[in-house]
Amino acid sequence: MLSRPKPGESEADLLQFQNRFLATKASPAVKIVKKADKRKGDGGSEEDERLPLQDSRDMVMLEDFPDVPPALIPAPAKKSKFKSARVHFEDPEEQLEHHDQHITAVLSKIVERDTSTATVTMPNPTGEPFPRAFHRSEVKSGVRKAVSDLQVSLSLALSPSSSCWPSQTLLFASQSHIVTGEGLRSMKSEQEAQNIHEENMERLHSMSQEEILQEQKKLLAQLDPSLVAFLKSRRVADESQEREETKEQERPEKPGYPETGSESQLEVEEVLKMSSLEESNMKQSTRTEEEDDLPVKPEKEWIHMDSVEFDKLKWMKDLPQPRRRRTKKGMQARFSLKGELIPPDADLPTHLGLHHHGEEAERAGYSLQELFHLSGSQVIQQRTLALQVLGHVVQKAKAGEFVSSLKGSVLHLLLDAGFLFLLRFSLDETVENVVAAAVHSLHALLVSSDDEEYLDRTFSWYLGMAVFPFIPNNEEEGEEEEGQEEILMEKTQEKKSKEENKSDPDVAQYDIIKGLLKTKILHRFRYILEVMRPVPLVVLHILDILTRIARHSSEACSQLLDCPRLIETIVREFLPTQWDPQVADYGELLTSLHGVPCATAMKLVRVIASGGRNAAARLLNKFELKSRLSRFIAEDPQDLPLKSKEALRLSTEAFRLWAVAAGYGQACDLYRDLYPVLVKILQSLPYLASSSHENNSMLQLSIQRAAAVVTLLTNVTQTAGCAAELQAQLNSCGSGEEAQIPPPPVTWSQVSGLRPFLETSLKRFLQELSQLDTWQVLQPLASSYIIYLGVYYNACSQQPSLNPIDCLEELEHLTSEVLLPLLSKPAMQGLWDLLRPCSALCNPLSCSPGPESVPSIVSLSCTGGKPPMSLAGSKSPFPFLTALLFLINNITHIHKGLVSKYTFVLGFRGLKDYLLQSCTTVSPSLTPSSAWILRHEYHLQYFVLALAQKMADTCPDYTQHASLHHCVAMTLLSRLLPGSEHLAHELLWGLSFNPELIPEGKAGGPEAADFSDILHLDPNTKPAQPGSVTTASSNPSRGALLEEAYQNLSLIRTCYLSHFVHLEPALVRSRDAYQGRTHLVRWMLLPEVKGPILPSDWPFFPLISLYNKVTSAERPGAVLNSLSPDLVNIVTRNLQWVLLLETWRAGALDGIPAAAKLARLMCVFLTGSDLFLERPVHSYTAALLSLYCQPKALDSLQLDAPLPGLASFHDLYINLLEQFEGVSFGDPLFGTFVLLPLQRQFSVGLRLAVFGEHMSALRAMGVPLQQFPVPLERYISPPEDNLNLLRQYFRTLITGALRHRWCPVLYAVAVAHVNSFIFSQDRTSEEAEAARKNMLWKTWLLADEVLKKHLLYYKLPNSECPLGFELYEQLPPIRQKYLQLVTKKEHKENTQLLDY
Fold first, then answer.
1. How far apart are CA 643 and CA 1074, in angstroms?
2. At 9, which helix (H) or strand (E)?
3. Which one of 55, 354, 506, 648 is most buried, by most CB atoms within 10 A?
4. Which residues form the RPAP1/MINIYO-like TPR repeats domain (predicted)?
């Protein structure tokens, strides 16, 4: 027996098995036979009969298995009538076009059907998305029609004369027009069809005329109208064919009718003929009209135009005129190929290529949906076109061109539709055109050239190199709580792990740059730049996108550096030290940017270097940027073989990159090598003033380059100023101590010789101040000069080799020869007057977000350019005045004797008006655009206040501006942004608590406060303060408390500074940046902006911090019974400062809602058990409460609104109630705080909590009516409408839980509301009406006559009365009548119940 092949055996083994099998001559297990052709039937020709092995196809036949599957139809196979004419393997589409004439497959389901010979027909199109379903419910239950029944109904429905039969006799055709027998395998197919027809006729003759018409209507309602029309046309065609045959045979009889008939037969014939003629005439007229509409008339001689399909030729017609729809519903926006919005009624020519065969074909342009659909086309040109148009649309949307025309945001719509990832997927294409279009669209989405331009302009401003990261403010992440660095590090790690687990679309939803980085877009850009080597425009766009990514965060800069071969490719290809000069000839377009220096690439490297000192060090050392800096700085831009503007930009960016590196104390060794070059540049700077009248683009680029050079020298000077200190630390460092930072390679002696050059140039530039047009061009360079001088003298004063006398003489010379003459010029008065029009604080709309701003994409809203009269505009005085005040502060800090000479600076009218308006207006909402611009404005305000502090300490007549400057200091303290912690510390230390800046403490302020309380100018104001259970004497007056607080300002300052210790790490980093300690600066990117440095309620911060500590120290179920004296002092100092601000600087606390102030004061009672009983705490709390109970404060009190820092006021109040029940000791002050939120205007839930779960608190709430500072009308009006609360009022009164001697305030309130309810005549629900009568009846039956009298005879509230309200001597007649009516009715009903 032969073995079977096994797995793993080779072909040689299989051949060996075959040879053995053939040698044995055994019979095979299977036979190969020819498969029967079903299309030929049983009777094939002899020519087709071949041996099985001679067939073209081999079939495997198993033993005991039939060769052919059993026939499903017992009838023999039918031969094809078209065998001789058919071509085998005919195309199915052509087969359908040529032989689409069978109707049996559409109408009937005949069992005797051979599907092998039947042609396939396509279903007729309908206007509905799906065919109409046939429901069984439409057929009577129990009725099952056979095939013949269905054919009968169809015959009735399709008969053209069915509606006009004779009323007496119905005659039918002799054969069926529907069932023809075609497709049946049997040879007697016609006979079978005739038998079916005769059965139908018999069934029709057995039905009445009404039944036939009813069945006809029912069937017509169920069938598709298009199908009915098709079958009618079939019948008409058959009848016309029969008529023609009859005419040829010249037979008078009509086929399908009996030879003999009556007059009714003739009538039926006539009706049929007329109906057929009408239908043919209608079709002919319709066809004629459609042919007339076509621009090209179809001819019969044309191929395949036998049957004209007008539906397919409609696109050749002329488009109708577009018109605006007169409807309120918006129309779909359509855009041109340039991204322009096309008006709905625009009639554009078709040769523009804006018309297509989609929806609204008469309207030109493409909708966003169509562009998205087109971007997925397989045609490269279509994909490219769609991406280009989308990029143009995004670009114009960001410019705000669609704001007035479209509803909603185009960018939001595109991003929600997946536009970002459409671009990302398109970048992975291999076609250069598609990649170029995707890069263009991504550039339009992410990059704003105007933002970059204004960032470059502010680079040379005071600390202009430092910018905020372009990180969106993600609300989902939540705000990080203040705490230690370890906790923050843990939260950062958790945040990173969560982001790693999120999908790319989820990340991109709130931060597009992060989402793109997760898609490995940097690797794709590297491939495009290195391998695909696109055209120059694409390269520039990619470099701009990479620059935008680098501005995102320091982490993004690290990813750019870590991407394999990305920075190497950029430096090698776009920052070469040698290149072919012919590549960049003048007047010619670059065909390739590879191998040619590019200023955009240098800018990208500079922005990456701003991400941190480590990034800058890697760029300088690993990528050999020092050699390239030397190459582009040592040679004059005019000598570079590049275009003039490109050479200037490249040189400018090289100096800026060097300035950034020098800001970290790096690359300063180049200063010695390039010193002659720098001196040559400085010598040429004064000539810029003479050429400033030209005012062209080349001059502006030269000014920016010169400002970058001065900024570089400023940072080098700061680095050199720290050399002596670092050298001393290095010399004092022992061998076993930690390694110290080495001193920089540049010393003070090497930089001190540059000052004369710069001072001479400054004098030359300042002469152009009176020429406004010239000054606008030269102002950036003049500002950088002044900043350099301020840095120089500040560093000079710290040098150990300094000769103090020489330094002071230089300062006096600078003051007398340069600064005082400058400040006395009339043009300076104009600069001070421009502060208010150009201020972002005074004009909040100037820094508002753009119209198409997207939260996930950070933008500075500079699209279209800033107005000239704005802080970053061309006419803004802020950069120059900030630099000038910086220099004056440094001079007066070194030379105290010069302070008096600058006193008049603070007296400029424009400066005072600006300061007054800036501290009284609401700060703009904090956005990336406002944060960037407000930081520079805060610098100017700080230098004004720093100068005011020096004058307050040295000038005795300074008090006239003290109050204004103190208000500005308090306002600025709550507005400073992250990165300015050093300024906040200086304000707290020297300005906020400076007694010299609070002249009210010495000029009769306490007495004025007492006098105001005594006068009682407001009749609604009550001077009395709630007393204390601890002392019998009254609380001190507000004037005495203010005087004590003023004397303790130094202690208050110490208290606040100690509570801001959590800001110490950020303070150290900020101090290093502001003091110019370059060797300690870690990065140029500022911290992420999530809000100001200090919270808006920072004056209450010690109290809040203490409350948090105490509540966290208390164990569950335990109470902290005693507090240390330090904690009492902390609360006292906090309350003293708040009282001082509320009295003399009320505007500083306007940003805190009145409800938030009240909630903060409640922390006094929630901290411990006896803190509020301490005399100073109790006195200051009572004084503040009296201020917060003034009518104006009570009107602004909104407890239902969300409060900053408080999750729920209701929960806080419940805690206060529980604390009151436990440790209040009946204190009136505590009781007043509990009663204050129970006013009628606030939530009823607070009142229900007191009269429900915490009813025991009513016994201790004994606040006298004469000491209660809130009018009772706020508790009584309007009348209470909550039925549950009214029942609680009534229950506490009649049960004695609420009594006048326990709680006089709420007793008067409850009596007033119950009285108003029981005597109310307003219409109400049946439940309230029944409760009202029940209360009145129970009140009438009260045994307590006093309470009964109060409830029935209540008249109106009056705090002067002992009860708090007045009583009627006798009830008014209407009330008396109503009382008698209710009591009499209730008495009668009760009597009936008793009898029953």
1. 38
2. none
3. 648
4. 1099-1325
Its sign, for the CA torsion 115, 116, 119, 121, is positive
Closest by Cα among 423, 429, 341 to 386: 423
String of DSSP letters for 26-75: PPPSEEEEPPP-TTT-S---GGG---GGGSSS-EEEETTS-SSPPPSSSS
- The CA-atom distances, in angstroms, between 575 and each of 266, 579, 600, 635 are 101, 9, 10, 15
| Residue 342, helix vs strand vs coil | strand
Burial (CB < 10 A; 0-12, 13-18, 19+), residue 1230, is: buried
Which two tokens mark 128? 């509905």
DSSP 800-817: TT--HHHHHHHHHHHIII
Tokens standing for residue 927: 């956005």
**Burial label, 671 (beta-carbon count in 10 A; 0-12, 13-18, 19+):** buried
User: Token pair of 1047, please?
Assistant: 């004397």
Position 1081 pLDDT exceeds 90:
yes
Determine the Cα–Cα distance for residues 448 and 261; give it in Å rounded to an integer. 92
Q: Report the alpha-carbon distance of residue 976 to residue 923 in Å, rounded.
A: 11
329, burial (CB in 10 Å: exposed 0-12, middle 13-18, buried 19+): exposed
- Give the Cα separation of 1066 and 1084 in Å (integer): 14
> What is the pLDDT, as a whole number, of residue 802?
84
Closest CA to 357 of 294, 406, 402, 312: 312
Strands 59-62, 30-33: pairing kind: antiparallel
144-158: b (≥16 Cβ within 10 Å) or e: eeeebebbbbbbbbb
Q: Please state, in angstroms and rounded to a whole number, the distance separating the CA atoms of residues 758 and 752.
A: 11
Strands (E) located in 1126-1276: none
Q: What pTM value is reported for the model?
A: 0.77
- What tens digit of pLDDT does each residue of 586-644 get? 445 678 899 999 999 999 999 999 999 999 999 999 998 999 999 999 999 999 888 88
Tokens representing residue 546 in the block: 């990479």
DSSP state of 429: -
Q: Length of the chain, please?
A: 1396
- CA neighbours within 13 Å on the CB side: how many for 779? 27
- Who contacts 1130 (Cβ-Cβ below 8 Å, separation ≥6)? 1055, 1102, 1103, 1106
